[in-house]
Amino acid sequence: VTRLVNFESNKRRILYVEGEPRWEYKFMRRAEEDDRIVKLVSMLRTSENKIYRQGIDDPKELAEGFPSRAEDLFDYQALIIGSLEASYFTTAQQELIRQFVDRRGGGMLLLGGRASLGDGGWGASSLADLLPVVLPNKKGTFHRDPATVELTPAGADNIITRLVEDPARNVERWKKLPYLMDYQEAGTPKPGAVVLAQMNA
Description:
By secondary structure, the protein is an alpha/beta fold. It contains 5 helices and 11 strands, in the order βαββαβαββββααβββ. The protein has helices spanning 23-32, 70-73, 91-102, 153-156, 167-175; strands spanning 12-18, 38-47, 50-54, 78-81, 107-110, 133-134, 142-143, 148-151, 183-184, 188-189, 197-200. The N and C termini lie far apart (58 Å).
C-alpha cells in the first residue's frame, strides 16, 4: 500500500502569547518564517486591552484573546508564554492550560521576562506544579545585567542545547557565544528536573 503524506497540512501549530514587544518575539517570528514543520500563531499584547495577532488561519482566530474553550486551545500542539503575569489569565483559562498539558499532552514553555516567572506571580499560581522549578517567591528576579551561560554535563549532548554534533565541541561553542543582555533567576529545580545550562552573572 502506498501512502502519500502532505506535511504542509500537518504543521505543528504553536501558540505564542507575549506581553510586550521584545527581541524574543521578533526572532521567533523570523525563525518560523521558513520552517516547514512549525506554524507559529502569536498574540502580542500591545496595550492593556489590545492584542496584535500574527499567523492566524482565520480572522476569528484569537479575536477574543486567549482561548477560553478546550476545542480552541487544543488545536495547538504547544504553548509559549512570554513576559506575561499569571494573572493575565483568568482562573478558567489557567485551568484550561492545565488541561492542555495534562489531558491533551501539549507542551508548555515559559520564557523569562519583566512580568514572567517569579516576577509574574507564576510560583503562586494554580499552574506552579507544572513547572520544573520552584520559582523564587519574590519580585526583582529579572535583571538587566550581563550574564554568560555554561552548559552542564547533561546539556553538553542534549538535543535542545545542541549547536554542533560533537559534545565537546558543543560545550566550546557555547563558551564562545556573546553574553546575555539580561537574565532571570529561575529558582530551584524540582526532583527529576534536568538542568541543561547554568547562568553566570
